Amino acid sequence: MMAGYVQDTILLFGDSITQLSTGPGGLAQQLSDVYQRKLDVLNRGFSGYNSRWAIPVFKNVFAKKSEQPNLPKVKLLTIWYGANDAVEPGGPQYVPLEEYSQNLSTLIQLVKSPSSEWYSPETRIIVLTPPPINSAQWAEFLKTLELGLDKSDRTVERTKTYADAVKEVAKKEGVAVVDVFELLWSAAGEREKALERFLTDGLHLKVEGYKLVYDALIESISQNFPELHYDKLQTAYPDWKDLSTENYAGLVKEPLVKRH
Amino acid sequence: MMAGYVQDTILLFGDSITQLSTGPGGLAQQLSDVYQRKLDVLNRGFSGYNSRWAIPVFKNVFAKKSEQPNLPKVKLLTIWYGANDAVEPGGPQYVPLEEYSQNLSTLIQLVKSPSSEWYSPETRIIVLTPPPINSAQWAEFLKTLELGLDKSDRTVERTKTYADAVKEVAKKEGVAVVDVFELLWSAAGEREKALERFLTDGLHLKVEGYKLVYDALIESISQNFPELHYDKLQTAYPDWKDLSTENYAGLVKEPLVKRH
Q: Which keywords fit this entry according to its UniProt record (chains A, B) (predicted)?
């Protein structure tokens, strides 16, 4: 029986768009709030990383089969890469489209394949597509870095091809997908300029952007893994109103972490 | 070598004032944000709980010595109870002042005593005093519950005696303390009415209240455990700019979680 403080988890694996989501209104913050006393939300976002660099990192941040019995279970894993893979060829973060698809399949298979050292059949997986880029806004941001970069190293068209690849991989691997690209692109009336409503710098999400992603993720959980919706999970430890000086001693005996 | 995803942690142990702090601007949210890729912030707040009920819960949420080798280390533990203990005698949550002090000492000794099953010498401890109550505001809130409660079951004077007890226990046990009561009380000019600036309902904290607590907690970390200040901790995994297609393979070999 594991210690209660290693409550089961939602593992958010991705790049800066995941890493920065602990801010107010961010994806990790909103999930932490609704999953209070139910699941811990672990932010495993790595700014600037692409799907190629993500693989060795994942092998270290995700527990091996041999370690899993002593550790919290990852009930839900989100994989959200592509925003960096999709830079123009030549950029240090660039990953060719075919390799990107292969890398996503590899990450999924590390968890889903019974022959994998990281096999975790209890872990549900949702992959997310990269958000659309506002190249004009991003170019403006790059200028402020004063690195001599005067144009965007990403285009909405190229990122779209990476978003489409995620959907193909999700279909092939049989995992759920949240199409962040389509979500923001359609909400912006398919106009890059209008993406300013959702993006801070043309690449990263504002609260308005995270809100759409959060709602879509919860909807995906409801549809694909309803048992993991926060309303379906029991709160760890009894409600205080069910305790009293008379019965609290029972706390000592009964398993305090009530798992669903 | 443990899996990287069980990053070391800050464990926030307390009542609803801790539990609700995952909201935007809350204590857990702000800590999660500044400790990105450094320490995981685990919210172990239990709404309505007092220090008596906290003891059996703590024995379950904090890993035993025998379990600790396989689990994330708790680098920092905050203990924040008293807001419920301090209700009027007769209320189901009431804990007499002397027992409250003893319960806090017990919680601290569970971690600090070498003879304890939960002994964790690496864990730094900060205790927090309960915030001052705005009894008029709290009475108004109780009325909205329509339970026939027309007066506050807490007073600022009584809560003050519990806050003072925390400071005595901290001194006796040799742990750090953040005096939330004094912090908010002085910021409010020692006027209950003025506490509305910091309290949502007379008992729970607004963003303005959590901001004061967060700043004081970081200041306490700087003074008492400088090695745990987020600026002193190395980020897990290299900065992406130090990676490249040429050297990323090195990631596979080198230990990816760089611990301080």
A: Hydrolase
